[in-house]
């Protein structure tokens, strides 16, 4: 399942019921009738005959490709038409198998506590792994084709469109292993990394937290939500309940972290990756110096951004220092407003339409056709994401909607992903997937469009201050916090190469990074040292997190050009989205005159956040 997760926002776990396998239904809540997925565009049901058909035909096609081409790919490349047929067959199979994986993954995300869904997801994953294992030879042999022969073959009109895919494939060549070892890595992944990922997910979804003053034990979402409660005592109670339960499970989370870090080290060593993040950079099609420039710029900006903002927020709350559970506290005079689902829909579509009617038209499909799953339900995956699924279908958005302004921003964010994925689908299964460095472009841009529209329509000073403060905190979470997460991951993986880490060692690394990034206006109490345990990105996608900061700074620069009426901006922007993964980030940014290798590019993005803090300080001085 191709999923674009985002920096997690956690919401209250409302006690609502849902049908065992919601299909295109709605759930009545205090926020209106919230849509639930209609997965029938993938498959009607887990036992639908089409599932069995695609499993059988997919396995047969994988065996056919292997029997026909194994050991003969280099020879096939002498005929451009023959090589084009092979690549197209491979792409068609990728779409079919991706449909199966997407369906199983989305059903599981809708209720991770359901044993039947978990079994179906596990069974489908095993069968898909077996099929892909049969095809490991293909990309290995494609990389054995002589450059001159491949260049001649790429002149064929039906193969030429795959040139970017072959170029990316060539970048993998130095890190590919023999077919037998690649098969072993793939098959063992089910009982190795895959198993520990699933253990983490199922453990997290089953945790319960005993919060003082609450009648019932709460889930993770509900407990994290208390950290943004207006009542400081409730924030503290939530933080202490989180710390206690995380500590109770610390041995397990430490084992999972050690195991996955060692698993990655083994893979990196065999594949010849030197730095702990090199494999992620390669997957993102971004050069290490570009990421290093981003990280350096953000580190240097800590005092101008997070340190300055949290000092200002402490003053607003009448405190010398914020307790760690106060970091996401609402402003003391923040207007409480609940936004129902129809209003949220109108807000986002109106903001999108103000930029480009085509953008709003695509986003509206998600509301009209059951492509969004919005209610909070027991067992449902936390946070939010947009799953691109496969080009022959369409994306699906998951979120947990509770009527807060931040929920509207989350909706705008995930629909941005959805629009991007919809536009890129014409590239096909091999070229549509977007590298993580550009995957956040449309989502953050959509969020910015929605925020700017709300801000422009807000004249009441307290509401404007609350909006600006909320957006500033979101951007700090997206840029400062995610780069701090990346720094922490680097420290953990580098230290793990020297031997197994104790929980105390990991805690110490976490606290050193948190103190540096958040600054002296945050006071850390006992228990915060274990808050690293719940961050899913550390488990599922090592070093993913810098993509958020990359995307945020990139969008800040793009949005600045939009405000300046950059010539042909809308057309260039849509071209960027339609390109999917068919171009390098440097090619994508060139029409806008932007260069991610230039440190000023990152500083320009960071200055947008700095400007918002300047405005908030100005409001404070004006009284």
Provide an overview of this structure.
The N and C termini lie far apart (51 Å). The protein has 3 domains: 120 residues, no CATH class; 145 residues, Oligopeptidase f, N-terminal domain (Butyryl-CoA Dehydrogenase, subunit A, domain 3); 239 residues, Oligoendopeptidase f, C-terminal domain (Neurolysin, domain 3, Orthogonal Bundle), CATH 1.10.1370. The longest helix is centred in the last third of the chain and has 36 residues. The protein has 623 residues and is mainly α. The strands form 3 sheets. A 4-stranded mixed sheet has the order 1-6-7-5, with helices on both faces. The chain has a two-stranded antiparallel ribbon with strand order 2-3. A two-stranded parallel sheet has the order 4-8.
Topology:
Blueprint: E1 3-5, E2 26-29, E3 32-35, H1 49-69, H2 73-76, H3 80-110, H4 115-134, H5 136-142, H6 147-153, H7 163-172, H8 179-189, H9 193-206, H10 220-225, H11 232-248, H12 250-271, H13 278-284, H14 288-301, H15 306-316, E4 322-323, H16 341-355, H17 357-368, E5 372-373, E6 385-387, E7 396-398, H18 405-424, H19 436-439, H20 441-456, H21 461-496, H22 503-518, E8 522-523, H23 537-540, H24 546-563, H25 569-578, H26 585-589, H27 599-622
Parallel strand pairs: 4-8, 5-7
Antiparallel strand pairs: 1-6, 2-3, 6-7
Helix pairs in contact: 1-3, 1-4, 3-4, 4-8, 9-12, 14-27, 16-17, 16-18, 16-20, 17-18, 18-20, 20-24, 21-22, 21-24, 21-27, 24-27
